[in-house]
Amino acid sequence: MREKKEINAEVGRRVRQAREAAGLTQERFAELIGVSPQNVSCVERGLAGVSLTVLRRMCEILHVSSDALLMGKPVGNDVEALARRLEQLPPEQFRVVRDVINSVLELTVLPDTKKGPES
Question: What is the pLDDT of residues 85-101, one digit of tens each?
Fold first, then answer.
């Protein structure tokens, strides 16, 4: 049985959090970074470390810095992360997401900012 190293457990926890925040399953994430789902599971549970090559691919796919995964440093604001995720969508999915966001924003406009007859 493999023994957990504290650094692997910490990095694994951050990888799992970033993967889940990106809305990826272990299987899909593994496919995108070129490893097996079992390897992703071992990394996330702290049973295995990652090579620099795999770490780089993880950062690219998750749109996070290596500092975020290795050291737990903040990765910027949610707007930047969301924008990077939107850029990866195929055009038809992007249009659907854009339309949903625009509809939600229209519903949240404050009444005094809507254009209309003066009171």
Answer: 888 889 999 999 999 98
Amino acid at 54: V
Report the C-alpha gap between 82 and 86 in whole angstroms: 6
Interval 101-118 mean pLDDT: 68
pLDDT class of 109 with cuts at 50, 70, 90: confident
DSSP secondary structure, 66-115, as one string: HHHHHH------HHHHHHHHHHTS-HHHHHHHHHHHHHHHHHHS-GGGS-
Q: How many CA atoms lie within 13 A of 63 on its CB side?
A: 18
Note whether 64 and 24 are within 8 A (CB): no
Give the 3-state DSSP-derived string for 15-44, with helices as H, strands as E and coil as C: HHHHHHHCCCCHHHHHHHHCCCHHHHHHHH
